Amino acid sequence: MPPPNSPVQPNDVSAPALIPDSSLPTPHFREDDEDIEDDAIRTINYHPFDVKEEFDERFDQIKPFVRPLPSAYIEAPQARFHGPILDTDGQPSQNIDTLRLVHKIDFSALDYLSHVDQNLMCSICRMAFYKPVMARRCLHLFCRSCLDQAIKHNGAVCPIDRRSLELPPDVSSENVAGSFVKAPHAIRNQVDALIVQCPACLDQVVRSEVESHLANECPEALMSCPGKNNVENCQYQILRKDLTARCLHYIGRCDDCGEKVLMIDMRLHKRYDCKERMTSCALCGTEYNKFDAQDHHDECPEIEASCKWVDFGCTHRMVKRSSLQSHEDNCNFRFIGNQIEMLTTQMSHLKVQLKDRQRISDSRIGVLESTTRETEKNVRRFTRAQNEDYATLMGRNPLSGLSEDVDPVVTTSDYHIMSLLERQTNRIDRMEANIHEIEASVRASEARSTTTIFNEIIPIKNEVMELRSSQQTNAMHTRWLMQLRLAENRRRGTTVGSNAGGGGESNNSSPIVPHRSSDSLHQPPRL
Amino acid sequence: MAFATKRLGKELKKLHESLPPGIELVSAEDFQDWLLDIRVLDANPLYLNQTYRLKFKFSAQYPIEPPEVVFVNTKDRPIPMHPHIYSNGIICLDLLGSQGWTPIQNVESICMSLQSMLTGNSKNERPEGDQQFVANNRRRPRDIDFYYHDNTV
């Protein structure tokens, strides 16, 4: 038997790079493979690993294509539980989550898509920190694994400045990494938020979520085969995007070439490997891959097709595609067809626009309606308040029933305006009252200040009077003294008149009659 | 190996982008052996107008373990005269021994250290016992226990 899974054509870039993985167990078989004895099937089904060696030899050529693991994997993904997972009723679980695997990724092998700041890079691996730890004394940061390795090689000193790392004395050499001081949260959060490339689907993923992305979402990541939960307990792994309802790891026959092929790889076999994959078209004779039959059907020149304007009335139906092109170029319906096509597209555009507009206007109307309702409610409230006021004003009993029926003819808008007017008048009244108040207070303060001024002026006046009187007294004294002096002078002038002619002269000119010195001396001056 | 490859890949990318003066990358076909040329930039008469070729050999444990660095002798690339460089190109520099090495060093920093080691030298001589060492040594440079006795040069 020739090896059915000869590698896919290497020059075909669209073919996934697949290689048979010898590390995986041999597939188990179903009854539809007639070459296998019954008890062998049972054994294999129930104990796929125990009998691995025995059957490897026999069926080593048939193994599923397995892609090489991306290099960032530390180890092949593993299932948490190796045995089948059953539901509570003992049936194989159909829950897709039971097929999840644990993916362990070497974070230093990831490609970073976001720019990594120089300060967030470990100086040993020159990558963004992964699980950064801090030297106790010099506070330098390193990846935990980098520092661990560096210590094993160079001793417990900081690789940057060779200061002691001050590890606890009782730490064992195997668990050095456990005694490291973790880097501050701020640093760890920054490096965990970096964007990396998923090693499987090459999508952008936040670094801290890579492993959960691979376990739960990534279409290119491996999962357990659905056969894991069944009695076969299939141990193969398949890509999430290839997931089917049941295990396809059994050997079937290719219905074209009759070769034995694992069902899971049937599509790949038919597309790239099957000897009978090429076929020639019965009509045009062109060779094509059966896998691409639909493509060929859409372009085969010998297949009968209809003119593309057939919907608009062209009678050119079911003619060979090769002759159709020349017809379509000259079809009388091509003008009208083009027009109609254009109009249809325009119409659909317009319909979409119309629908948009309608949606917008509907929402606007809704808003307007709700505001109108609100306004009406407000107006009603105003009117009621006004009526009550009116009733109180008129000294009537403000019974609600009565006041509401005060004037049934008045419309709501009138009420509104009237209430507005009322409010304005009220406001004006209030303002007038205020003005009066202010006037009164101004007047009061004026009076107050006048009295204060008066009170202060009165003592000043008194003082002024006193000053004036004392000044008059002084003036009288001065006058009296002057007269006394003059009289003395005159007397002296008469006694020595011969001696001084000037003195006699002045005496003659003075009309003043001298007082008696006794009178003026002994009498107090009059005020 | 992935660890060393990743780190060397980064270094190589940086070396392709920019290199310090007097250092040139000759070949780096894989992540095991690299060749670099260095020149001394000042007018030290011992090394004036000379270019020297360095060979780096990286182990899988790089950068935890130091690379093996030796001068290689080709037609126009002699072995520089230095009291710490044997005439077979082996360099006695504590930086390259497991004692002096720290993983934060890189190819560029090694080249610059060697440049400055040459620049600071004024003795036109080989290490003591050069003839005997060259004749007898079969060990790889990393396995030799150099005695770093002289810190003046």
From TrEMBL, chain A:
Keywords, comma-separated and alphabetical: Coiled coil, Metal-binding, Zinc, Zinc-finger
InterPro entries listed in its UniProt record:
Znf_RING, Znf_RING/FYVE/PHD, Znf_RING_CS, Znf_TRAF
Q: Does the keyword Zinc apply?
A: yes
The residue stretches assigned to a coiled coil in this entry are 421-448
Question: Where does the record place the RING-type domain?
Answer: 122-162
Span-the-membrane segments of this chain are none
Please state the residue ranges covered by TRAF-type zinc fingers: 269-318
Domain TRAF-type spans what residues? 269-318
Please tell me the species this chain comes from: Mollisia scopiformis
The molecular function terms of the Gene Ontology recorded here are: zinc ion binding
* UniProt region (Disordered), positions on chain: 1-35, 492-527
Name of the protein in question: Uncharacterized protein
Question: So which domain of life are we looking at?
Answer: Eukaryota
Instruction: Enumerate the PROSITE patterns for this protein.
Output: ZF_RING_1, ZF_RING_2, ZF_TRAF
TrEMBL record, chain B:
Any single Pfam family the record assigns to this protein:
UQ_con
**Protein keywords:** Ubl conjugation pathway
InterPro entries for this protein: Ub_conjugating_enzyme, UBC, UBQ-conjugating_enzyme/RWD
User: Which parts of the sequence belong to the UBC core domain?
Assistant: 3-153
* Endoplasmic reticulum recorded as keyword: no
Which species does the entry assign this protein to?
Mollisia scopiformis (Conifer needle endophyte fungus)
Q: Where are the transmembrane segments?
A: none
Give the CDD domains listed for this entry. Answer: UBCc_UBE2W
Identification of the protein by name: Putative ubiquitin-conjugating enzyme E2 W
